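I have been asked to look over a protein record a colleague put together. The record follows directly below this note.
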Amino acid sequence: MNNTQSDNNLFYFNRLTYITPHEVALAMNGFDYDTENDELTEIQLKEVIRLRKAITRNLQLINEYKNISATQKVEANLVLTAAYIFQREDIVPVEIKERIENALQQQVKNKDWGDILMMLGGNELYEIGKK
């Protein structure tokens, strides 16, 4: 992928207001959020599916999203905050980490931010949000 293509992909990803857990899992694994499953190797797809399941399960802890699937659009900051604790230093691109961090900062501005962070990441995420 050339720089222009990479910049375009990040341009759109960073401006999406609604996103799916699957799209976030793709981006966190270094792929364009719009990559088709058949463009990935079996090993890559397995890792994307594992991550999207984890993100989706976190979202399902919130009553409003208890029936959400990995391919349903959800408010981007919420999905990215649900993904926060699954970031791996050796895999997640810096630009995606920055977007996830920004989503967490936006989330703590909400009235019930403490409860939401506890549901999405337990004490670990709650303590990060308090900083």
Summary: The beta strands are 18-19, 74-75. Residues 3-130 form one domain. The two ends are 37 Å apart (CA to CA).
